[in-house]
Amino acid sequence: MRCNHSATAPAFLVTWNTLDSHSLSKSAKKKLSCFNLIRRHKGRELVSWHTFLDTAETALLGFFNLLNISPTDHEKERHRSQVRGFRVFGVTLITSMLSLVSAAQTGDPIAAIQQRLNSQINVTRITADRSDIVTPGDVVVIHRPGLVMYAVFSPMPPSNSYKNGKIGQGWGGFGKDLAIGMATPGAGTAADYPHRMFVPEEKCWVTGIQVQKDGVLFQLYSDPYGDTRFYANLKVPFPDKKVVPPVDVALQTVADVLTVLPADNQSGQGYQQAPPPPPAYAPPAPPAPSQYGDIAPPPPPTSMPTISIGQTKADVTSAFGEPVRKAILGPKEIYFFKDMKVTFINGKVSKVE
Fold first, then answer.
1. pTM of the model
2. Backbone angles phi, psi at 251, to 5 degrees
3. By the 8 A CB rule, do 344 and 313 touch?
4. Can you give the pLDDT at residue 301?
5. Helix (H, G, I), strand (E, B), or coil: what is residue 234?
6. Residue 173, C-beta contacts closer than 8 angstroms, at least 6 positions apart
7. Secondary structure (3-state) at 87
8. Cα separation of 270 and 223, whole Å?
9. 100 close to 221: Cβ distance less than 8 angstroms
10. What are the backbone dihedrals phi and psi of residue 180, each rounded to the nearest 5 degrees, phi first?
11. Is the pLDDT of residue 112 over 80?
């Protein structure tokens, strides 16, 4: 049986020559020659040369393993493939290492902005009930209009956000007002708490700084206005909310809204720690020595004064003295004593805490 190989089958010819060089038996050569007959049937080509040669080479490799023959050309190609594989692996490894080094050098931009702001603005510490300052920090000047603060006895501060040259409340402020109303006892709303609108160049304290992925959130706190301090949150968004900017760009964005008052101007600005509140009532002075030594002093009262629902403000103040602080919320009025809080509605006691 004779096999005629055309010029379109170089891979098959190489494999055939390799087999001849190893002096295969006549029966093995005869079996290999049958591939050409299998490929054709009655003179009609059943499969293309490429498909046929792929099948043939797979079968020949099986013969190599069976006869323990090493095809030199195949081994050389496999060696070249291994070398190329190692080259690709090396390039990938080096690229990964360079990426890690670059990331380490770049660092976390949010952390970098946070560190710079912490170094530039000393945060003020306040009491847990937000009634006074424990450790004063830096005073900041507000440069844009529209900042709204609520009295510190509001359960939550209002939300403010800077946009297009001014400060507003927007949908975030609306949602926060709903949350304040839900946290207020009874049927109260955010409107029941005293508000104050701050104008440009007014000053306040910073009690917290939090750098987020889309901007910087400041927690602000005021000096007393009358008997009331105020507080609020102020968000200064980055120019592109989807990208954290470089540190210098972020600091410039913040400086457009607020800046630290120079240290030599912070004294004498009225930003001093508030004096302690007066006592709820002064204890009575001890009685003067009586010229009648044989007369015993009157016995002390047998019971402490009490408050009942429905009493008037005059009844309460006559029994306990003037309150430390008052808050007027429309028809609701709250008297803050040293050890209790009394709520009046329409001038009569409605709740005692």
1. 0.49
2. -65, -35
3. yes
4. 58
5. strand
6. 148, 158, 159, 160, 161
7. helix
8. 8
9. no
10. -65, -45
11. yes
Place of tokens 């720690």: 273
Q: What is the mean pLDDT of residues 87-111?
A: 57
Instruction: Determine the straight-line distance between the first and last CA of the chain, rounded to whole angstroms.
Output: 113
pLDDT at 270: 52
208-233 confidence digits (pLDDT tens) = 999 999 999 999 999 999 989 999 99
Number of Cβ within a 10 Å radius of residue 89: 10
Dist. CA 130–CA 126, nearest whole Å: 6
Query: Three-state SS for 94?
Result: helix
CA–CA dist 201, 147 (Å, integer): 11
Report phi then psi at 74, rounded to 5. Answer: -65, -40
Kind of pairing, strands 139-142 and 325-329? Answer: unpaired
What's the rounded Cα separation, in Å, for the pair 115 and 131?
Answer: 29
Q: What is the CA radius of gyration of the chain?
A: 44
Q: Is 126 helix (H, G, I), strand (E, B) or coil?
A: strand
User: What DSSP string runs through 237-294?
Assistant: E-SSTTSPPPHHHHHHHHHTTEEEPPHHHHTTSS--PPPPPPPSSPPPPPPPPPS-TT
Q: How many whole angstroms separate alpha carbon 190 and alpha carbon 158?
A: 9
For the ranges 67-81, 110-124, 223-237, the lowest mean pLDDT is seen at: 67-81
